[in-house]
Specification:
The chain is mainly beta and 168 residues long. The protein is elongated, with a radius of gyration of 18 Å. Strands 3-4-5-2-1-6 form a 6-stranded antiparallel sheet. The protein contains 3 helices and 12 strands. The protein has 2 domains: 80 residues, Elongation Factor Tu (Ef-tu), domain 3 (Beta Barrel), CATH 2.40.30; 64 residues, PRC-barrel domain (SH3 type barrels, Roll). 8% of the residues lie in helices and 44% in strands.
């Protein structure tokens, strides 16, 4: 489940939502806490090519960016849906107890007794809290809120309360 290790997989920071205006700017949907998460980077991997960030500013529901390689609305519109990624090594270290979602994908999950439960396949946030999507050993997937009552420990293995992963 995921051949690449988190440290080598590119980390997606935003997606192009569409064109903005007629001069080649694009609207971005951010996957970072703020626009500052993008400002720290000057180049992004984008569907097999590199885009060079020229300008970035807050925009409707995210940000508005201009890339050196995109010169008009047609080229900007062609980027719709394109994911913008950077290398994991380019991200700053986090304080103790904080994690990049990217680093949690692929981590094995066990219950409070140490029994293997499955593996984290995705991390989502629908507004209330972060949610781990865990693929159980039988193939079924469950969603577990990333809150202390459900997720007891995060490390090389993620420990969860059994009640949150029982397939019942």
């Amino acid at each position: 489940m995921g051949a690449e290790r988190p440290a080598t997989r590119p980390v997606v920071l935003a997606a192009v939502a569409g064109a903005h205006g007629i001069t080649g700017e694009v609207r971005l949907k951010l996957f970072t806490a703020s626009i500052d998460g993008l400002k720290a980077h000057s180049h992004f991997e984008a569907d097999g090519r590199t885009l060079t960030l020229k300008t970035l500013r807050p925009g409707p529901q995210g940000a508005v960016a201009r890339f050196a390689e995109i010169g008009d609305r047609t080229a900007a519109e062609a980027l719709r849906g394109t994911l913008l990624a950077v290398s994991r090594a380019s991200l700053p270290p986090l304080p103790e107890g904080e994690y990049y979602w990217h680093d949690l994908v692929g981590v094995p999950v066990e219950d409070e007794a140490g029994a293997g439960v499955g593996i984290v396949v995705a991390v989502e946030n629908f507004g209330a809290s972060d949610i781990l999507e865990i693929e159980l050993e039988g193939g079924k997937r469950v969603l577990v809120p990333l809150v202390p009552a459900a997720v007891l420990d995060v490390g090389a293995v993620i420990r969860v309360a059994r009640a949150y992963v029982d397939a019942g």
